[in-house]
Design a protein that fits this description.
By secondary structure, this protein is mostly helical. The chain has a domain of 63 residues. It is built from 2 helices and no strands.
Length: 99
C-alpha cells in the first residue's frame, strides 16, 4: 500500500497589524523626566531603608516594614509607568507619535 507524503503548506502572508493604543502590558522605556522622578524616589526609599536598618530591632515588624517599603516602591514605579503610557496614548491621538 502506497503512502502519500504530506507536503507542508506555506504559511499565509500576514497583513500588517493595525496601529493600536499602548497596552498596560507593553514595555515602556522611561523618558528623561520619568528617569528623574524614579531616581528621586529611589533616593528617598534608600534613605528610609537605612533609617529602618539602623533604628529598628530585627523581627517580624521590621520585616513587614521592608515588605511594605518594597511594595510602595513598586507602586511608585507603576505610577511613573502609567504616566508614560498615558503620555504616549495622547501623542498617538494627536498624531504626534513616532511609528
Amino acid at each position: 500500500m502506497a503512502t502519500k507524503k504530506k507536503t507542508a503548506k506555506a504559511p499565509a502572508a500576514e497583513a500588517p497589524a493595525p496601529e493600536r493604543s499602548p497596552s498596560r502590558f507593553d514595555y515602556v522605556r522611561y523618558d528623561e523626566k520619568a528617569v528623574e522622578k524614579q531616581a528621586k524616589l529611589k533616593a528617598a526609599f534608600e534613605s528610609i531603608d537605612h533609617l529602618v536598618e539602623t533604628t529598628l530591632d530585627n523581627g517580624r515588624a521590621k520585616a513587614l516594614v521592608y515588605t511594605k517599603l518594597e511594595e510602595a516602591y513598586m507602586w511608585a514605579g507603576k505610577a511613573i509607568r502609567d504616566e508614560q503610557v498615558a503620555d504616549r496614548a495622547a501623542e498617538l491621538e494627536e498624531g504626534r507619535g513616532d511609528t
